[in-house]
Amino acid sequence: MGRDRVTLADVARRAGLSKTAASMVLNGREGTRLSAEAHQRVFKAAEELGYRPNIAARSLRTRKTATIAFVSDIVATTRFASGLIRGALDAARERDHVLLIAETQGDAAFEQFAIEAMLDRQVDGVIYAAMQSRRLTVPPALLTGPAVLLNATGPENVPCVLPDDEQAGRTVTTALLEQGHHDQIAVIGRNRLKERNPEVSLAAEARMRGIRATLAEAGTTVAAEAFCQEWLPEFGYRAIRALLRKPTRPTAVICMNDRLAFGAYQAIADAGLRVPDDISVVAFDDDPIAAWLRPGLTTAALPHEQMGRRAIELLLDSHTAAPCLVSMPLRRRKSIAPPA
């Protein structure tokens, strides 16, 4: 019998049960009062016949299609942030859902087309994700049904999932304090645009809040700061060079991301100094480069997979609009030590 012609009635006949009973077993409904042996007959018959449920017909009855839209800017083609999709895929599969993924590359016209196309397919909800943690302008079409913002915020009534950057600021600062650094902790990567404009970044201000609060609780402050136009290695290099020209050398440096730390390592080495013997370094994100630096970089990791998973859980299970903050674990490597 051809797979495309197999019906629920065929399965029921093969199992020796009514169509209603077979349907209840295959749909996992409780209270069938059928024996375990009868359940096994149904599953065996479905497997032998190659039965596949008619999803379109089921969706007409249940108003559910078991599909979720995942719309992003550049997440899908960015290796570092691909964990957002991986976590969402895993969580969706565990709930017997599939993802329809679209990447807009920042093209507003295509974004509108992609969203409308997915909504036309009657998806059960939409995950709207951003590569950089920031506040988004949410397309009005998304507000007509269940939606979750991933790595972003938007209207207060839309649930969102974010990394806990403020707590991460506390975590990396505490790691330095525990090693005995106190009065000579510097920060590189200050950036007024990132810190003042949530549409550019939510991370910068939150990380600085955590750093400052932890130092204040320890009775100290940031000893020196370096502003950087971008969070890229060349700006980290320049920032360290500038700090080393000051009369007092920092004993530790907090870099606002790992790429800045990469540049900082090079500048420290060029000055004839060593990490962590002369200067300890910590950072944020756990970019793949962090583990390849020598010594390995201690950094607060962006929990992308956990965030993607949590977005699916919020979409399918929760009715809250409160932001969900996901902890950024500290990856302890060899870049910090007590002050020389």
Could you state the CATH homologous superfamily of the largest domain? Response regulator
- Topology as a string of helices (H) and strands (E): HHHHEHEHEEEHEHHEHEHEHEHEE
- Determine the strand fraction and express it as a percent band: 15-25%
Distance between the termini: 78 Å
Q: Biggest β-sheet, characterized? A: 6 strands, parallel
The CATH C-level class name of the largest domain = Alpha Beta
Structural class: alpha/beta
User: Which shape, going by the Cα principal axes?
Assistant: elongated
Number of strands: 12
CATH topology of the largest domain: Rossmann fold
Identify the CATH architecture of the largest domain: 3-Layer(aba) Sandwich
* Assembly context of the chains: single chain
Q: Main sheet: which strands, in order across?
A: 2-1-3-4-5-11
Task: List low-pLDDT spans.
Answer: none
Average pLDDT taken over every residue: 88
Helix content: 40-55%
Q: Treating each run of at least 4 consecutive H or I residues as one helix, how many helices?
A: 13
Q: How many separate structural domains?
A: 3
